[in-house]
Amino acid sequence: MTAETEAASTAAVKTAGAAPGASWHHRHLLDLDVVSWPEIELIMRTTDEMKGILARPIRKVPALNGRRVTTLFYEASTRTRVSFETAARNLSADVVSVSTATSSVTKGESLVDTIRTLEALGAEILVMRHSVSGAPYLAADIFGGHVLNGGDGWHAHPTQALLDLYTMRQHLHGGDLHGRKVAIVGDILHSRVARSNVWSLTAAGADLWLCGPATLLRGMDRWAAAWAGGAIPGHGRFHVTSDVNEALRDADVVMALRIQRERMQGGLLPSLREYAARFGINAQRVALARPDAIVMHPGPMNEGVEIAPDVATSGRAVITEQVTNGVAVRMALLYLLAGSHDPAHSGEAGR
Amino acid sequence: MTDRQIMTDDEIRRAIVRISHEIVEKQAGTQGLALVGIQRRGVPLARRIADAIEEHERVRVPVGALDITFYRDDLSLVAQQPIVKGTDLPFDLNGTTIVLVDDVLYTGRTVRCAMDALIDFGRPRAIRLAVLIDRGHRELPIRADHVGKNVPTSREEIVKVHVAETDGRDEVSIARQARAEEPATAGNQ
User: Fold this and answer.
1) Residues A188 and A250 in one domain
2) Could you tell me the residue range of the domain that residue B41 belongs to?
3) Which of A2, A102, A269, B159 gives the lowest tally of CB atoms within 10 Å of its CB?
4) Where would I find the H helices in A55-99?
5) What confidence tens digit (pLDDT) does each residue in A158-179 have?
6) ipTM surpassing 0.90
């Protein structure tokens, strides 16, 4: 450590670094499809350290002192937004929070103009949620700093998938998901959480099962079939089924997804009650899984629909741990992104 | 570049034994004393000092490890992400005399970070500093209480500390950098 500081303090700045193992090269985090397994493991290790900070009497380190993090949420959110803002503050970053309901977006300002304005106001790291899939990719094209996807449409929610992975590793013996059965049950069709989890869990070698009513699995079977032959290097196959018993049998992890009422137009479900009866995660269904299986939910929960209240509060549920781990994972990502080398901005990054 | 040896394994061993005596003498015993090594090479050095103290005082003083990555003020200057190596302080810092242990004292910035980090864990009675090598060129008003060897250097030189625990052998050598851009090795990471 002395030596790294030595190098950085002299003109010979470039002599620092070159540590063994993976290093972080991504300027943005938009989805996990372009993040390699060694990079995911680097995120997991960095998250371990962040958990250590959260366990201290003073939960704050000066790592991002003076760096400016802006959250721009075009969609309602409490946990993701608060989680990102807490994470940024724990790293001593300056946090600006833009809520579109009270911003010029209501006056018709476009996404591009809003992002240019935020950049002109000094934003360096932009955490963004948008109801349109792909919106953060547009943002990354025009924004000079780093973009972190906090969820876009049905497409991706990479930080949720990473906190899910971290939580599973904490609970599975040896921290290895290889060959362990993970069942994700619910509204797969509209779920950016499921899509990002497909990338991380197949990279981890998990035996992944996506389960829901056929109307809420549309297109997934084609995706699964395309992958079955090993089409994507580094990613294993996954299964799609409408048979909830098959999905849950001997599962190590049971993850219920929220039935998204706001996206539920066009008669995809006969009724919420029928969904709860046929697919809801209740005590009888959890009994099909392994005795030490954990139950997860990305929140917010509709208790009594996709998950029974007694399951959500049982000893197997790790739902509040997911929330706590979310802060640590987001700290790790903010830290890694802020330190990623960005030639275009290296001039002003020196503070 | 050529390496010039400045400390042999025997010299390192003697320096550690002497520092262990100095620490106990200054504290007038081992009561309320703890050693904290700065990652990475400060950690094995701290353990060795604790071993030496145990040998002549028959008391095991607590040893911790401190990672200062998140306290550095140069995150945006380093070309590659620093890898975090872990902090482990298995004792209560409040009211303890902490001896920070590191391999090389140079600009003093690492030690400043380490003091910031320590204070986030509690309120030590005092913080002292023990280093194997003091090579000068301080950029902050920091001074070591216990020094293995003072080595006058130029800024173009690199001090390489090897310890058996991580590098397979005990040796301190000094090298002249061929070019500023050349990636440093081992002791200088």
Assistant:
1) yes
2) 9-155
3) A102
4) 79-90
5) 999 999 999 999 999 889 999 9
6) no
Residues of A in contact with B184 (CB under 8 A): 3, 7, 15, 18
pLDDT in tens, A270-290: 888 899 999 999 999 999 999
What would the pLDDT profile of A110-127 be if each residue is shown by its tens digit? 899 999 999 999 999 999
Best to test chain A binding among B43, B76, B110 (most A CBs inside 10 Å): B76
Distance of CA A126 to the CA centre of its chain: 15
Q: In which domain, by residue range, is A166 found? A: 158-318
Give the domain CATH number at B42: 3.40.50.2020
Residue A296 lies in a domain: yes
- Can you tell me the distance from the alpha carbon of A323 to that of B89, in angstroms, rounded to the nearest whole number? 26
Q: Which chain B residues are closer than 8 Å to A15 by Cβ? A: 177, 180-184, 188
**CB-based contact, B42 to chain A, within 8 Å:** yes
Contact state of B106 with A19 under an 8 Å Cβ cutoff = no
With CB atoms and an 8 Å threshold, state whether A18 touches B113: no
Contact at 8 Å (CB) between A160 and A104?
no
Q: Is B70 on the interface with A (CB under 8 A)?
A: yes
Buried b (16+ CB within 10 A) or exposed e, A55-65: eeeeeebbbbe
Same domain, yes or no: A32 and A91:
yes
pLDDT at A3 over 50: no
**A142 shares its domain with A164:** no
| Total domains in the fold of chain B | 1
